[in-house]
Specification:
Helices cover 13% and strands 38% of the residues. It is mostly beta strands.
């Protein structure tokens, strides 16, 4: 987080990072907080299989990922699930069928900045398998994987690895 050096208020090379969440300038008393960002991750499930995507860009390009993304300003988590599933998979979901499971902290590193997130996990069960035409700018493929064959270490993010280690115990 040391890449930010210049104070956006006074312009001096005096911005200090506290190592956790705050930059401050001793010259003009400016403060900038890097607060936790909300993100959603949706387990799309058909019987004992789940639908995962493979990332086509960094961070963690080539790794498996749950569909989801960051919560936009003035947007609820369930609305984010609906928007992200449509954007990524052209899947139109009924929000009332989303089941909240748990939340876990995560660090999303992007272009030398660590974004602390709170990842909200949901499950969305479908009555039949489907395939989608992907916009490969973000996702290189989407695959159905039997839960018994899922290796959490193949997943992109630590929060998802931790989530699946517990989730797999319940199925």
């Amino acid at each position: 987080m040391k890449i930010l050096k210049y104070c956006p208020n006074c312009g001096k090379e005096s911005l200090n990072w506290d190592g956790e969440k705050k930059w401050s300038c001793p010259n003009c008393d400016f403060r900038l907080y890097n607060n936790v960002a909300g993100a959603v991750a949706v387990v799309i499930r058909y019987n004992n299989e789940i639908y995962l995507t493979r990332r086509n860009r960094d961070p963690k390009k080539g790794k498996l990922d749950l569909a989801g993304g960051f919560v936009d300003p003035r947007e609820g988590a369930e609305e984010t699930c609906k928007r992200e599933l449509f954007e990524e998979l052209q899947l139109d979901v009924d929000i009332s069928n989303l089941k909240y499971l748990t939340s876990l902290p995560n660090v999303y590193q992007y272009k030398e900045i660590d974004y602390n997130t709170i990842d909200l996990f949901y499950e969305y069960r479908v009555t039949e398998k489907f395939e989608v035409n992907l916009d490969i700018s973000e996702i290189s493929e989407a695959v159905w994987i039997p839960l018994k064959d899922l290796d959490p270490e193949d997943l992109a993010f630590d929060s998802q690895k931790k989530f699946f280690k517990e989730y797999l115990k319940t199925v």
